[in-house]
Amino acid sequence: MIGEKSLQEQVKSAPKKPGVYQYYDKKGKLLYVGKAKLLKNRVASYFNNDKQKSGRIRLLVKKIDSVKYIITESELDALLLENNLIKKHQPRYNVMLKDDKTYPWICIKKEPFPRVFKTRTVIKDGSEYFGPYASVKMMNTILDLVRKNYKLRTCAYHLNQENIEKGKFKKCLEYHIGNCKAPCVGKQTEADYDQSIEEIRNIIKGNVGEVKRQLKQSINKAAEQLDFERAADLKQKLDAFEKFQAKSTVVNPSIHNVDVFSMVEDKDLAYVNYMKVNNGAIIQSHTLELKRKLEESKEELLELAVIELRERFSSVSKEVLVPFMPSYEIEGLQFHRPQRGDKKKLLELSERNAKYFMLERRKQQAKTDPERHTNRILEGMKKDLRLQELPRHIECFDNSNIQGTNPTAACVVFKDAKPSKRDYRHFNIKTVEGPDDFASMEEVVHRRYRHLLEEDEPLPQLIVIDGGKGQLSSALKSLDRLGLRGKIAIVGIAKRLEEIFYPGDKYPLFLDKTSETLKVIQHLRNEAHRFGITHHRNRRSKAGIQSELSNIKGIGEKSAEELLRKFKSVKRVKEAKLKELEEVLPLRRAKVVYKYFQEEG
After folding, report:
1. Which of 98, 437, 445, 542 could pair with 478 in a Cys bridge, judged by C-beta atoms 3.0 to 4.6 Å apart?
2. Average pLDDT over every residue of 243-272
3. Distance of alpha carbon 11 from its chain centroid, rounded?
4. Per-residue pLDDT tens for 436-487?
5. Choice among 28-37, 69-78, 202-211 with the minimum mean pLDDT
């Protein structure tokens, strides 16, 4: 066992060179693998007394019992070695690379007269594998193009020259319907078949331009030899390739052999999309999910993803488009952050793919593990809004009045980030004269939480006020009077720029427009507005109807309510017979109502 003193000596003896460091616990289990331009400085940074360190890093440091170093020639070698060690050992505190699917590949089998087919299993037998294809539609489009234009065998016979010469095989149905040239019985030479395979290889790689050039030469040659039937067949093939290229081209066709990477972040997760572009066509696309373990920077995540995905897809592109420059220089690669033009459009397309993948993951998680999905949203809100506890119970207030008439307010309640409609409440403003939003807010907040305190009901963890500093200050006055100031977190949201205001802070918080926290707050605000407006309209409508009946001399508000309760509308009151009115009102008042509407009629 290695003691603490020995660990300190190992840290102090770290080399001043680039390389990889490995942290082990007392049982010899690998905890973490990291890379560094200068090992001594990087390793020492873990063990200084920095109070800004996250809880995860402090927990890791407590578990470290020994450190091992591997010195490399360059920073690039350190990056490659780190990636390989992470994949091999999968240490607990390293970034986790996640793929939940086995994506399909196109295989060109290593055999005489090679078959071309799709597979989800990669076998190291010397065969060529192209992919993986995140879009099965894209892969099937390529395979359809190959099948329609090249007559390849689909059988699994061992077609070596000896077996063919011995006549071990017979022509099958595929030959008779024109899908195969029967190399099994010597009707197609291996050289001719291999020429087709070479063209298919170029198509899969996206080099359709090279295939088209060769086809044009073959068409001209066939025409010179007066072999017009062959020339016509080749022309049909050329037309098919041009249609395929037109569908595949998304940007300038001059963009050749380029890798595109983009990244979107979601709390501890990051999604890196990779696109392979050749002759302006996207020939491969894949999104990788990475999970942070020690608050790795976005540059570190991108570097890891670039190395991993280029290795996985066997990329040899020299130009790499990125959303931001990585901290490492990789020999032989030119990183480029485009600001405009077609390459910028490619980067934006890649980012849209990453965002789509992220949203699909969220939907999938919401269905398969709703509790975890909810906790993730609440954890995000706690972090974004700087709260002390998870906001499992949130209440939002909004005022409604039009030209100062019938002022009302609404309180909507969200539990676990979802509307709890049974707990919604509306308020008729009682103590405020005229359209005074600030005083109205003060009244309803006081009434709401005075009631909760009196009934000993649970208080929310967060209050959201629809409005800016003025409404927020009014709500705070009520919390002060009730002794709840500081016991419940409270924020205001201003509609114009979606600013989040805090008590005593003159500078608002601006949340990312795509953040889930902002979406929950907007949902709260919109629900409060909808609920409040609906109640306000109903109250105005009822007041308007009652005022029409109350205008009848001798009919008060109570009589008007009784008539509406019975007849449901003023129109039915007008159409009612005297006998029907007598069932609701005394005879004298019933005659007054009946006479009023008869004379009006």
Report:
1. 445
2. 76
3. 40
4. 778 888 999 999 999 999 988 999 999 999 888 888 999 999 999 999 988 9
5. 202-211
Contact 248, 207 (CB under 8 A): no
Paired tokens of 316: 């040899």
> For the domain bounded by 258-366, which CATH number is listed?
3.30.70
E strand segments, 269-358: 269-278, 281-291, 319-321, 334-336
Amino acid identity at 136: V
State the CATH architecture for 381-538.
2-Layer Sandwich (3.30)
Whole-angstrom distance, CA of residue 555 vs CA of residue 547: 10
CA 229-113-142 angle, 5° bins: 70
Report the pLDDT value the prediction gives residue 419, as an integer from 0 to 100: 92
H runs (alpha helix) in 90-227 = 136-149, 161-165, 173-176, 190-204, 208-224
Per-position b or e across 168-182, b if 16+ CB within 10 A of its CB = ebeebebbeeebbbb
Reduced to 3 states (helix: H, G, I; strand: E, B; else coil), residue 98 is strand
Judge contact between 69 and 14, C-beta under 8 A. Answer: yes
pLDDT computed for residue 1 by the predictor: 38
In angstroms, the CA 268 to CA 380 distance is 10
Contact assessment for residue 75 and residue 69, using Cβ atoms and an 8 Å cutoff: no
Query: DSSP state, 386?
Result: T
Multiple choice CATH, 551-600, 1.10.150.20, 3.40.50.720, 3.40.30.10, 3.10.20.310: 1.10.150.20
Residue 523 Ramachandran class (φ > 0 left, ψ -120 to 50 alpha, else beta): alpha
d(CA 89, CA 552): 88
* One-letter-per-residue 3-state SS of 457-504: CCCCCEEEEECCHHHHHHHHHHHHHHCCECCEEEEEEECCCCEEECCC
Range(s) of the chain covered by CATH 3.30.70 = 258-366
Asked if residue 224 has pLDDT above 90, the reply is: no
- Please report the pLDDT score of residue 2 as a whole number: 42
Angle value at C-alpha 548, between 543 and 551, nearest 5 degrees: 115
Contacts of 478 (CB under 8 A, 6+ apart): 442, 443, 445, 446, 449
pLDDT of residue 394: 95
Q: Where in the chain is the domain with CATH 1.10.150.20?
A: 551-600
DSSP notation for 17-84: SSEEEEEE-TT--EEEEEEESSHHHHHHHHSS--TTS-HHHHHHHHH--EEEEEE-SSHHHHHHHHHH
Note the pLDDT of residue 342: 84
- Give the mean pLDDT of 322-350: 85
CATH no., domain 4-94: 3.40.1440.10
Burial class (CB in 10 A: 0-12, 13-18, 19+), 537: middle
Give the model confidence (pLDDT) of 491-533 as tens digits. Answer: 999 877 788 999 888 888 888 887 889 999 999 988 888 887 7
Contact 131, 106 (CB under 8 A): yes
Q: How far apart are CA 263 and CA 486, in angstroms?
A: 39
ω into 132 cis (within 30 of 0): yes
CA 332 remoteness from chain centre: 32
What is the residue-averaged pLDDT of the chain? 82
Task: Say which residue, 203 or 546, is predicted with more confidence.
Answer: 203
Q: 136: which 2 tokens?
A: 């099965």
